[in-house]
Amino acid sequence: MNNINKKIFHITLLLIVLFGFNLYAESTYPNTSIAIVDINLILSDSKSAKDATKQFEKIQKSMEVEIEESDKKMLEERNSLIEQQSVIAPEAFEVKAKDYEKKLQNYQVDKQKKLRKLEGVLQKVRNEILNNIKPILEDLSSELGVTVILEKNSVILSANNMDITENVIKKLNKKLPKIKVSLD
Question: What average pLDDT does the structure give for the chain?
Fold first, then answer.
């Protein structure tokens, strides 16, 4: 082969390899289209989130009142025990003091359980909203031809028209306008 034929052969071979690789890449990787969604905004501005927040605040206030009353009773019992110290025998006082300490420890454990239960209620509501968002995101991605949806907090910079949060909120408001919030 002469020099020109070698060059043509190599260029043809290179084009075949590049063209073949390009066809392979196009067949295995879809064109990527990205959308952005602000989950925190959805968890605060959707109808279900606002409704759940109102219900949660009522439950929280009720629990705070209950805890304050119980705290007051425990303090009164402690003060009564201190007053009795000078009147009753030391052995009897020690028994009552031990009983009070056990009661106080049990009360503190119960108080912590109630507070954890309250946190669990909040997490349950959040999970219910998130579970309802997923199919909405799947539908929107198909509808808009989006292949990747990123959470807004993890994106440094994006075009405004990439944000689909308002669409998600509208669809979520129709699908899940309210959530029942309870300690049970």
Answer: 86
Is a pLDDT exceeding 80 seen at residue 92? yes
Cα angle: 154, vertex 157, 161; to 5 degrees: 105
Handedness of CA 162, 165, 170, 172 (dihedral sign): positive
Query: Distance between CA 13 and CA 8 in Å, rounded?
Result: 8
Q: What does the alpha-carbon distance between residue 5 and residue 61 come to, in Å, rounded to a whole number?
A: 87
Confidence of residue 54 (pLDDT cuts 50, 70, 90): very high
The encoded tokens of residue 15 equal: 């084009």
Please report how many Cα atoms fall inside a 13 Å half-sphere around the Cα of residue 88, on the Cβ side: 13
Torsional sign, CA 59, 64, 65, 71: positive
pLDDT of residue 89: 87
For residue 46, what are the β-bridge partners?
none
Cβ atoms 34, 146 nearer than 8 A: yes
The pTM for the full model equals 0.70
Q: Look at the chain and count its residues.
A: 184
Contact between 36 and 164 (Cβ < 8 Å): yes
pLDDT class for 50, splitting at 50, 70, 90? Answer: very high
